[in-house]
Task: inverse folding
């Protein structure tokens, strides 16, 4: 009986995590940053998986509709500690020569799912609500969104990105 209960719990946890994502797109033309995702409108959330040809941190920026600020998902897998890490952040896109450095949200709304590194790919999986109601988050709306992507070959957040760019993508299908 205990085995049956344990097996049922394992199935429930497995069912809550998406393994086959119905949507995917490379955000860069060189094929370094693959975004996979599943939107669950009935639940009101989105699960995103970043598969990036990098040994350090990865980051996705979701720009606001007016382009003044952005929601930032930051994370990776540290081989030295064998732990995944992540942060729910935001930044001002109008300050300074490019923009301000991201800062942690006062109300983190990301749900960490997993992080791994299997040479040469860092994979980060997170979940969040489409609309969190948090002033530091950008609502994921229907239609094209401006997404910024970046990654580093180091796990230290103070190290600048190795590569970065922007892509326009609709995360909620019409």
Result:
């Amino acid at each position: 009986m205990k085995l049956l209960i344990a097996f049922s719990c394992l199935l429930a946890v497995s069912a809550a995590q998406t393994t086959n994502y119905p949507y995917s797109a490379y955000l860069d033309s060189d094929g370094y940053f693959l975004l996979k995702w599943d939107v669950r409108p009935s639940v009101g959330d989105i699960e995103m998986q970043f598969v990036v040809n990098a040994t350090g941190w990865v980051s996705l920026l979701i720009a606001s509709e007016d382009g003044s600020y952005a929601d930032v998902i930051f994370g990776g897998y540290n081989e030295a500690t064998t732990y995944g890490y992540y942060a729910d952040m935001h930044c001002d896109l109008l300050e300074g020569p490019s923009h301000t450095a991201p800062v942690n949200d006062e109300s983190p709304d990301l749900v960490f799912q997993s992080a791994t590194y299997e040479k040469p790919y860092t994979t980060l999986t997170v979940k969040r609500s489409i609309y969190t109601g948090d002033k530091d988050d950008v609502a994921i709306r229907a239609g094209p969104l401006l997404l910024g992507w970046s990654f580093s070959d180091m796990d230290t957040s103070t190290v600048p990105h190795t590569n970065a760019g922007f892509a326009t993508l609709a995360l909620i299908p019409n």
Summary: The CA atoms of residues 37 and 75 lie 16 Å apart. The first helix runs from residue 2 to 16. The helical segments are 2-16. Residues 1-17 have pLDDT under 50 and may be disordered.
